[in-house]
Amino acid sequence: MTTYPTDLVTLEPDAVLCRQRDRESSARTYARSFPIVPVRGEGMVIEGADGRRYLDCLSGAGTLALGHNHPVVLEAIRRTVDSGAPLHVLDLATPEKDEFTDALFATLPAGFADRARIHFCGPAGTDAVEAALKLMQTATGRHGLLAFTGAYHGMTTGALAATANVAVKEPVAGIAADVTRLPYPYPYRCPFGVGGERGAELSAVYTERLLDDPSGGVVPPAAMILEAVQGEGGAVPAPDGWLREMRRITAEREIPLIVDEVQTGVGRTGAFWAVEHSGIVPDAMVLSKAIGGSLPLAVVVYHEDYDGWLPGAHTGTFRGNTLAMAAGAATLRHVASEGLAGRAATVGARMTARLDALRAELPVIGDVRGRGLMIGVELVDPEGTPDACGAYPAAPRIAADVRAACLQRGLIVELGGRYDATVRLLPPLVITDEQAEAVLDRLADAVAEVTSPRPAGRRS
Ligand SMILES: Cc1ncc(COP(=O)(O)O)c(C=O)c1O
User: Fold this and answer.
1) Which of 225, 263, 300, 424 gets mutated to test ligand 1 (max ligand atoms within 8 A of its CB)?
2) What is the mean pLDDT of the chain?
3) DSSP letters of 402-430?
4) Residue pair 63/427 in contact by the 8 Å Cβ criterion
5) Residue 454 CA, ligand 1 centroid: distance in Å
6) Which atom of ligand 1 is nearest to 154's Cα?
7) How much of the chain is helix, strand and coil, in % rounded to 5?
8) Which domains does the chain carry?
9) Which of 175, 188, 214, 222 allows an S-S link to 142, with CB 3.0 to 4.6 Å?
10) Has this prediction a pTM greater than 0.85?
């Protein structure tokens, strides 16, 4: 038996995992793919109760900009606890909230921060998406929503309506109400079957024509919501020009543009906010994950002109998490002062280039894409029949085997995208050069092992 002493208990990892399997819901996700019991975390490394150490490229689904237990974050939490500050105060004013708001506004794109309002939401990205949708419905008096193929915006009713994943929507009655689905540019699996920049151009043309078509079936909507880089959708970046087109098209038709930066924010894509790459100024930004410095926090920030809510229009008990605000402010300031967005751009470009070179050697790698430290490696069946753009069929089984082989090699990677066939890399921004190399070595080794011919009689 491997034991792990802590103050209170002696852990037996297998027993913990068994109890989890027996007691938690069948909807549990990551726990199925990663049968480990984390007990320590530092930077990019987490350690299981069995003593094994893993390079964590999941980072709490993109939450941990500074990795696990960064000293700056721990210091902010300790200082706040030691100060005797109340830890939970609904939406009352506190010094920590004041400082968090200052820190956040200091990072927001120029032209947005000066006239922005912030609303603190229930501490999950999905609640901030709900808030943004309600805000724009209230402001415009309209109801419909424009959302994109491949999108992920959360699991509550409005956010799920905007989300594109059919399997999670199918069992929920009435979920697709009033959402017009538009084609998101995705060169490898182009919705128009043409790929490249032409696919993005057609997406913009289609969107504009559809909105202007009196028989297009689209009642003027309350908002358009999009991700500048789709995260759960498989690390698919939208071209900057396409984003500028979406901004133009929505502005000309007085449709508020909501950019969901829940996953792309705080340096992840190589800019502090992903909208900065294209220079667009949205009407609202939905923020969560990394803004809480590892603790739960979610906000919607929007142009003051839309602030037509009545008091209590979007309430929630846990909107005053003092520790999350302290940890979040410390994280935002550290990412900015240390130039970690730039670091994400540099390391991300290097990792993506090496993965692209690997693609030439390993035909199972169909596509490598991403922006900054939001990288996707789409695995395919190179013996299948390619589509009109030359994309081979997705290989979800190989992807799952690669994820397991990575775990065996001490590397945590999660899957996403169409058919869950894309390996997603979301390492913390503090990843070292050595760790980046180790991630790629282990991933390459895992892909090679999973796809190498096996001796007769063994599972393929
Ligand atoms: C872009 C985006 N929006 C919204 C959400 C929902 O956030 P949460 O899981 O905190 O509700 C996610 C979660 O992954 C996300 O990636």
Assistant:
1) 263
2) 94
3) HHHHHHHTTEE-EEESGGG-EEEE---TT
4) no
5) 39
6) 6
7) 40, 15, 40
8) 4-63+341-451 (3.90.1150.10), 72-337 (3.40.640.10)
9) 222
10) yes
